[in-house]
Amino acid sequence: MKKYMIHGGTPLSGVVTISGAKNAAVAILPATLLVRGVCRVENVPDISDVRLLLEILDEMGAEIRRLSPNTLEIDCSRVRDSEPDDALVRRIRASYYLIGAQLGRFGHAKVALPGGCNFGPRPIDQHIKGFEAMGADVKLQNGCVCADAPAGGLIGGRVNLDVVSVGATMNIMIGAVLAGGTTIIENAAKEPHIVDLANFLNAMGAKVSGAGTDVIKVRGVKALRGGCYSIIPDQIEAGTYMAAVTAVGGNILIQNVIPKHMDCISAKLREMGAKVTEYDDSIRVQRTGELRRANVKTLPYPGFPTDMQPQIAVCMSLARGTSIITESIYDTRFGYCAELNRMGACIKVDTKTAVITGVERLAGCTVHACDLRAGAAMVIAGLAAEGTTRVEEIEYIERGYEDIIGKLRGLGADIRRIERPDAPPKAASAG
Known about the structure:
alpha+beta; four-stranded mixed beta sheet; UDP-n-acetylglucosamine1-carboxyvinyl-transferase, Chain; 23 strands; 26% strand; single chain; globular
């Protein structure tokens, strides 16, 4: 059994460096399938989701060289038109980007329905709508997405997304890069990692415009060439450390960030009593006084990100007064609240709303990471709590946070990773 052991109550201080953006990396890596040449990708986070994707690409025939812990050379020139390994695909949500990449490269894709965090259904109907608008025939068969382009390959089309979907926006972009004609995505998502994907594709020779707005245009090109690209810093990882020092107290400098990407998070933490100072590529967060209540509604970028909802809930649990979180993206993302309540928090959940009455302190106990960001919230709660907290099911956390133990220990946290083999089953007694 793997778990984190945390002795809480110590303010955080020091410097932490943010890794490359998970949500950009897990789209950029599948997109390398479109490139007939060598892609050098820098600032790649060393997390389990990335390692899974690299394993999938390797099995498909990609040549991958790790030049440093966070720099890769990927050559997909000899990749086969083959079905990615089901067992690997089902372990990661972002594997659906393989559909767009394979459709664009080979005109055919068969990819098992993906897995990942379990906090409610995340249908891929908008992805399918986009591929069909480009002429693809898409079917769901035996737990797989089976898609076939017309004989001459995908063709440009107009896609008006029914809801703002980050995954669909990125997947359609990937599929459209080598399509004939121009694809227009309306009601597109605007997140920083969408812009990063567009910048990566353009660096390889694509013609993508409008990323970061609600209308993206992709003019199809004949081929993509190799090149070099560096992934942006992770907005959510940075926000997690900002929330941690806000909840626990202290003074930390967060390096390798794009402060503009953090505006919605910075504003809310300032409202709650943290001092946030922005520099060119870093942010300092200090908190010494009492936390104040606040209300949050999650929204697509540039609104407050749903992926920061559990982390700020910990801050609210320790704030004076009553705070309200309204979740507008996912229907069932409050599963972690029961775990926080076990630590002494006072949270009442009604469908998409959580009402949080602040308490003086949290108490350490054994809690579970029910998904990636909920797991990060459990770590923050453990750092802020009195006594010892054990966080179990940490594999969720390690899907998206590079070296979280090392980084937190560098800030003075008393946290360690424990890895023990599961106990063998007890033998049945005779008689």
